[in-house]
Write a structure and sequence with these properties.
The protein is 43% helix and 17% strand. The strands form 2 sheets. The chain has an 8-stranded mixed sheet. Strands 4-3-10-9 form a 4-stranded mixed sheet, covered by helices on one side. It starts with 11 loop residues before the first strand and ends with a helix. Helix 6 crosses helix 8, helix 6 runs parallel beside helix 9 and helix 10 packs antiparallel against helix 11. It has 312 residues and is α/β, with parallel strands linked by helices. It is globular. It folds into 2 domains: 180 residues, Rossmann fold; 127 residues, Orthogonal Bundle (N-(1-d-carboxylethyl)-l-norvaline Dehydrogenase, domain 2), CATH 1.10.1040.
């Protein structure tokens, strides 16, 4: 990595304090000033008073600042947009006109988060997708459960040196990151994996667990979904960075009893909007545009949308 990875960042603003936002905020707060923008005032107050505890793979507590009021934010140079894709519009509308020189990093699942950010400002944007996983135990406690990397790439001409700098910052915080000149191969690897695993989890009600890798049972369906996603990526001319099936099986190589509820399953259970349209829905739309048959993916997408609407 180039020396730009050692460049300073004055203040980081983490926008959204779910599991992933909390993991970024707590780790980064150990090396740079961090402020967290939350939806709820009581959440912000608890974080400011108690700090943020991380347990699991890492175990520490980090003091930080938090607010639910955009007008109370300090000037910041790096924003990590950690809301769900369905929450980006609301968050970035509130931030319109603030910190115009800050680089905004999208880390959502699926495709299209960058366009939602761009609709509300001219900030430089870095595209990202993260494979790390965790569970928010309370407003001030997050469990770090999967230490996989965050992948980053430039969007709309953002200099690659800036992407390298941000990746270096994340790595120095104790998390894993990698900068790519072109994020699409890595982004599509995560998309194909997540469209299959997350959607099957949401429809069946099962966490990502051993049945997902059992090719004599449910794992065969997951594998077939992944193959359809790979065919869409190939038709789009994208050579995947990582094998999505390996992304599915890798956690079980470290922990045979690994079990993690994807965010889309938690959304379904809570009766909240999901990111289906940006994940498996994106695969279906690209398949339709490219003329690639994906009957299993299409059927699962329809089932998921029906379940989402029934729970809303």
């Amino acid at each position: 990595m180039s020396d730009t990875s050692q460049a300073s960042v004055d203040v980081v603003c983490v926008i959204g304090a779910g599991a992933i936002g909390s993991l970024f905020a707590a780790h980064l707060a150990r090396i740079v000033p961090v402020v967290v923008l939350t939806r709820r005032a009581d959440h912000a107050r608890a974080l400011s008073e108690e700090g943020l505890r991380v347990s699991g793979i890492h175990d520490f507590s980090a003091p930080l600042r938090a607010t639910a009021r955009v007008d109370d934010l300090p000037e910041f140079t790096l924003g990590i947009v950690a809301t769900k894709t369905s929450g980006i519009d609301e968050a970035m509308l509130a931030l319109a006109g603030h910190a115009p020189g800050a680089t905004m990093v999208t880390i959502q699942n699926g495709l299209g988060a960058e366009n939602l950010v761009r609709a509300h400002g001219s900030w430089p944007i870095v595209s990202g997708t993260t494979l790390m996983g965790g569970t928010r135990r309370t407003d001030t406690h997050v469990a770090y459960e999967n230490d996989a990397p965050t992948w980053l790439g430039p969007h709309e001409g953002t200099p690659f040196a800036r992407v390298e700098q941000i990746a270096g910052l994340i790595e120095r915080s104790g998390l894993k990151a990698r900068a790519f000149p072109d994020l699409r191969p890595a982004q599509w690897s995560k998309l194909v994996f997540n469209a299959a695993v997350g959607s099957v989890s949401a429809v069946t009600g099962l966490p990502h667990s051993r049945p997902f890798v059992d090719e004599s049972g449910l794992g065969a369906t997951v594998h077939d979904l992944i193959r359809e996603g790979q065919s869409v990526a190939a038709a789009a001319g994208i050579e995947l960075e990582d094998d999505p099936w390996q992304l599915n099986t890798r956690p079980f190589e470290r922990d045979r009893d690994y079990s993690h509820a994807p965010s889309i399953l938690l959304d379904i259970e809570a009766g909240q909007p999901t990111e289906a349209d940006f994940n498996i829905g994106a695969v279906v739309r690209e398949a339709d545009r490219l003329g690639v048959p994906v009957p299993l993916t299409t059927a699962l997408y329809r089932l998921l949308k029906a379940k989402e609407e029934a729970r809303a």
